[in-house]
Amino acid sequence: MDFIFITPSEVIEHMFCPRFTYFMNVLKVGQHEHRRQLVNKGRLIHENKLVTNKDYLRKKVGADSKLLDVYLSSEQLMLVGKIDEVLFLQDGTAAPLDYKYAFWENRIYNTHIMQQTLYAMLIELQFQRTVNRAFIVYVRSKNHLEQIDITENLKIKAKKVLDDIFNIINLSYYPNAKKSKRKCEDCTYRNICVA
Question: Can you name the residues that pair with 137 across neighbouring β-strands?
Fold first, then answer.
């Protein structure tokens, strides 16, 4: 059986607007996101962190060891993702850690929470370790560190979003757009989307 895999980034785009899923995964129209300056800057920061933080261990969060730039996939979830760091904690659990080329704005966006939840689910399946925390480092705010509690309720929500995505892909239906037209102004598909 051929498996279709999606990434946590595609899940975030689906949360931005379900039509991303339709254009990317049904019509196969690329976004050309490499042309976007912030995306390129974020990728550069990511590559630098892999070199400069190679041996740094986050003892404050209870990390015993870590793996860098970890590529994980799951046929069960039909999900693939590359995690900046997988932390193995003193209490026997594990946790994803992700670097964001962003400022800390006194809130963690739902899209970031969803991304970390999906990473947590991939880690649990791959390493057979409980994941009940995730961490985000906001690089542009002096590497401000935030913790997310990964709950069962979040995992249920993540599975529902995955189901929604695969319904669009498998049924090839054109979903409704998000109601906020402000989002349309910054959308890479605005020229081909029929609102």
Answer: 99, 145
SS3 of residue 162 by DSSP: helix
DSSP at 90: T
155 pLDDT higher than 80: yes
Rg (CA), the chain: 17
Residue 100 Rama label (left phi>0; alpha psi -120 to 50; beta): beta
Both tokens assigned to 15: 């949360």
The H or E element that residue 87 is part of is strand 79-89
Question: What is residue 129's DSSP assignment?
Answer: -
H-helix segments, the chain: 8-16, 19-21, 37-52, 110-127, 152-171, 182-185
Q: pLDDT per residue over 52-89, tens digit each?
A: 767 777 888 999 999 999 999 999 999 999 999 999 99
Q: How do strand 133-138 and strand 94-100 relate by DSSP bridges? A: parallel
What's the one-letter identity of residue 193?
C
Q: How many CB atoms sit inside 10 A of residue 121's CB? A: 25
Give the whole-angstrom CA distance, residue 65 versus residue 92: 11
Q: Got the DSSP string for 169-190?
A: HHHT--PPPPS-THHHHT-TTT
Average pLDDT over residues 92-108: 95
